[in-house]
Amino acid sequence: MNTNEHELGRGDSALDPRARDVTNRVVGAAFDVSNGLGHGFLENVYQKALGIEIELRGLRVEEQVAFPVSYKGRHVGTYVADLVVERSVIVELKAAKALTQAHVGQTLNYLKASGIRVGLLFNFGRPKLEFRRLLL
C-alpha cells in the first residue's frame, strides 16, 4: 500500500468544508494538549486529554471505538480507533520517537474498517507535535 498518496496538506481542497472544519479544530486541540502536557507521557494520557479538549471545542468525541473487520462475509478481527470525532474523523494517537509508514498504514486500515474517509494521526512522543491528515 502506498501510504503517501493518502496524505493531505493543511486545509486540502479534497475535504468537504465540514470535514475541514472538524479536522482543523481537532488539530488545534492537539496542539493545545501538546503545549499543555509536553512530551513523555503514555499514549492513553494524551487520548484522555485530547478527548477533553475536543469536547471543549463543542465536538462529539467517542473513545476506543471498535470496528469489525470482515472477509467474505465472515468476521476476522476488530480494529479499535483511539478517538472518533463527529462520527466522521478517526483520530489515532502515538507517543513514539517518530511517526512511521506503519503508523500511517494502521490509520488507513482503521479508515477502511470503519467506512470513515478522514483520519488524523498524531505523535505526542517528540518535543514538537507531529501529525498527518489522511484521506481514504
Describe the structure.
By secondary structure, the protein is an alpha+beta fold. It has a single domain (15-135), classed as 3-Layer(aba) Sandwich (Trna Endonuclease, Chain: A, domain 1). It contains 3 helices and 6 strands; from the N terminus they run E-H-H-E-E-E-H-E-E. Strands 1-6-5-4-3-2 form a 6-stranded mixed β-sheet, sandwiched between helices. Helix 1 packs across helix 2 (43-56).
Radius of gyration: 14 Å
- Which fold name is given in CATH as the topology? Trna Endonuclease, Chain: A, domain 1
Distance between the termini: 12 Å
What string gives the helices and strands in order? Answer: EHHEEEHEE
Q: Please, how many helices?
A: 3
Give the CATH class.
Alpha Beta
Spatial strand arrangement across the major sheet? 1-6-5-4-3-2
**Percent range of helical residues:** 25-40%
Low-confidence stretches: none
Sheet with most strands: 6 strands, mixed
Shape: globular
Task: Outline the secondary-structure elements.
Elements: E1 7-8, H1 17-37, H2 43-56, E2 61-71, E3 74-85, E4 89-94, H3 101-114, E5 118-123, E6 130-135
Parallel strand pairs: 4-5
Antiparallel strand pairs: 1-6, 2-3, 3-4, 5-6
Helix pairs in contact: 1-2
Attribute tags:
alpha+beta, 36% helix, 136 residues, Trna Endonuclease, Chain: A, domain 1, 6-stranded mixed sheet
Briefly say what this structure is.
With 136 residues, the protein is of the alpha+beta class. It has helices at residues 17-37, 43-56, 101-114; strands at 7-8, 61-71, 74-85, 89-94, 118-123, 130-135. It is built from three helices and six strands; from the N terminus they run E-H-H-E-E-E-H-E-E.
